[in-house]
Design a protein that fits this description.
The protein has 322 residues and is an alpha+beta fold. 53% of the residues lie in helices and 9% in strands.
């Protein structure tokens, strides 16, 4: 299978989409939609992601994302990973939720931003989910036309700016979207082998050249990439819990009977640091490796019950594995 083209750089724009494995529904009710939107809010703060348009459908989603820090893969790994765990927990299922890795189309924003936003917003109408786009609640379109409040993490200015920056932009944008999808863009998205770049020929050439350079850089980074040391893991956990590293290693029990910083550090030493149970036992002054195994097992059970604990551990894991 050909590896998907991934071009990342600070300031890039993407139309990101994914659907459920076997086209199954990935949003089963209002709570699912709301949780997914909460993740967009989360990554906008955590990773500096800018969301300009979104549309969540029953079995797939569309996002128009700007990445000032050039970190799309981290953003999407966070969103898809947390949402899959949430879905499996709520629905009592297991295994992958999505059909594979997300599809990301690199967009030449100067020429296509407005058109792509319209294409995304028209999804519920094209799928015959509603008669009026303004009636679909799980899209940024109601916020664009003034029907809903614009959330703090949703950016509408760049799309409106491409309408000429005139007054009554909400009214003009609504009329623009209701005109229908641009023929050129509709043809682009109908292709069976969807291009990973949407833009002019010169833009495509520049991005392909960047892709070659990026691939070389990634290959060089992998050659020198180190597994995080135990001390680095413990320091990072200590920073998150506002403790000293020595306090993380101590055996005292925390609130609720569990010293979670210590348990999490053990878990991360095994998962991220690739340490053996014997090595972890020696580091944390535990007499037998079986006790480490039991402690990590109990932490996994607690993660199933406590979604905030699970999110914190996923955050820590991602911070240590950039």
């Amino acid at each position: 299978m050909v590896r998907p083209l991934r071009i990342e750089y600070p300031g890039a724009w993407y139309h990101v989409m994914n659907r459920g494995a076997g086209r199954k529904k990935i949003f089963q009710g209002d709570g699912h939609y709301q949780y997914y939107l909460s993740l967009l809010d989360d990554v906008s703060t955590r990773f500096g992601a800018e969301f300009h348009t979104y549309c969540l459908m029953g079995n797939h989603y569309h996002l128009l994302i700007h990445t000032p820090e050039g970190n799309l893969q981290r953003i999407m790994r966070h969103i898809n990973g947390l949402y899959t765990q949430y879905y499996n927990k709520v629905m009592r299922t297991d295994g992958p939720l999505f059909r594979g890795r997300y599809k990301a189309i690199l967009v030449e924003s100067d020429n296509y931003l407005l058109n792509v936003s319209r294409y995304i917003h028209r999804n519920p109408l094209e799928a015959k989910r509603v008669r009026r786009l303004s009636d679909y609640p799980w899209s940024s379109y109601p916020a664009y036309i003034g029907k809903d409040k614009v959330p703090a993490w949703l950016h509408t200015e760049d799309v409106f700016e491409q309408m000429g920056g005139q007054r009554r932009h909400k009214v003009r944008y609504q009329a623009y979207v209701e005109e229908g999808t641009d023929t050129e863009l509709a043809t682009f998205y109908r292709k069976e082998a969807l291009s990973p770049i949407l833009g002019s020929e010169s833009f495509r050439e520049r991005m392909m050249a960047r892709h070659v350079a990026t691939d070389k850089e990634i290959a060089e980074q992998k050659l020198v990439q180190d597994v995080p040391s135990a001390s680095k893991i413990i320091r990072h956990v200590a920073d998150v819990y506002h403790m000293k590293p020595s306090e993380v290693v101590l055996t005292k029990r925390g609130r609720g009977g569990r010293h979670y910083s210590r348990l999490i550090a053990m878990y991360l030493c095994q998962r991220v640091g690739r340490m053996s149970l014997n090595e972890i036992a020696e580091l944390f002054s535990v007499s037998h490796y079986a006790s480490i195994s039991n402690s990590i097992g109990q932490l996994r059970k607690d993660m199933v019950k406590d979604i905030n604990l699970e999110k914190r551990i996923i955050h820590l894991t991602q911070d240590l594995t950039p």
